[in-house]
Recover the amino acids of this structure.
């Protein structure tokens, strides 16, 4: 009995490992996985493999830097991601299920709240409350919404 339980646990672990291995390399693995449109230009802001695994950390750190410390760099800006990764068809990164960010996330069951505030299309004004010192801020009707970082 104990041996069977052990065996089952091992089998379950094996399945879990196999699954997470494909889940973290959805594209490299090939079959059954979302087809991603290639971004504009020759390469991403970092190595492609690195981006597959670590883009969420880049974005979050970048956001934290922007919001808390007032640092603004553009290298890992969300706006830039959108500029290069918007779909030829929908013009967006997350309007349809095939769009770059959404394709992968729906496959991986990741839900983002980012698009509540940030534009999924390039060229649009990204945020209504631009500027940390700007005058526009006070006149925005959206001014009262929660700042990111406060929620969650
Ligand atoms: C409640 C609204 C809101 C939500 C939700 C939100 N943000 Fe933001 N975000 C802002 C505001 C406001 C700024 C500051 C804009 C500025 O300074 O230009 C900002 C700035 C940023 C920046 C730095 C500016 C840029 O374009 O790169 C990044 C990166 C960023 N957010 C990423 C994210 C990510 C990733 C998510 C989802 C996990 C997210 N945000 C969700 C409101 C939001
Ligand atoms: C200058 C244009 C450009 C910008 C800006 C850019 N990317 Fe990319 N990105 C690309 C290209 C081109 C590729 C495909 C590279 C390849 O085929 O090796 C890519 C690949 C990726 C991949 C891997 C896709 C795959 O096939 O598995 C991810 C994830 C990614 N980018 C996320 C982001 C995020 C998040 C941002 C913003 C922080 C961003 N990119 C900004 C051009 C860009
Ligand atoms: C190659 C597949 C892939 C692509 C393409 C992709 N993502 Fe992701 N993303 C993931 C996976 C997988 C996770 C969950 C990682 C985890 O939970 O550790 C994730 C998580 C995130 C998170 C963190 C969510 C949270 O609440 O923790 C953000 C933010 C994010 N992605 C932004 C983007 C943006 C913006 C784009 C498009 C520019 C994009 N991603 C494109 C696979 C992808």
């Amino acid at each position: 009995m104990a041996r069977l339980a052990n065996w089952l646990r091992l089998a379950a672990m094996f399945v879990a490992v196999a699954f997470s291995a494909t889940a973290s390399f959805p594209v490299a693995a090939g079959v059954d996985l979302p087809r991603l449109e290639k971004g504009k230009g020759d390469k991403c802001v970092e190595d492609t493999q690195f981006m597959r695994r670590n883009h969420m950390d880049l974005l979050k750190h970048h956001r934290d830097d922007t919001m808390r410390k007032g640092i603004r760099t553009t290298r890992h800006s969300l706006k830039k991601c959108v500029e290069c990764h918007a779909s030829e068809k929908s013009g967006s990164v997350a309007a349809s299920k095939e769009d770059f960010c959404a394709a992968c996330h729906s496959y991986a069951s990741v839900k983002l709240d980012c698009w509540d505030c940030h534009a999924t299309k390039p060229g649009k004004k990204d945020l209504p409350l631009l500027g940390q010192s700007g005058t526009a801020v006070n006149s925005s009707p959206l001014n009262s919404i929660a700042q990111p970082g406060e929620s969650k």
Notes: Residues 2-24 form the longest helix (23 residues).
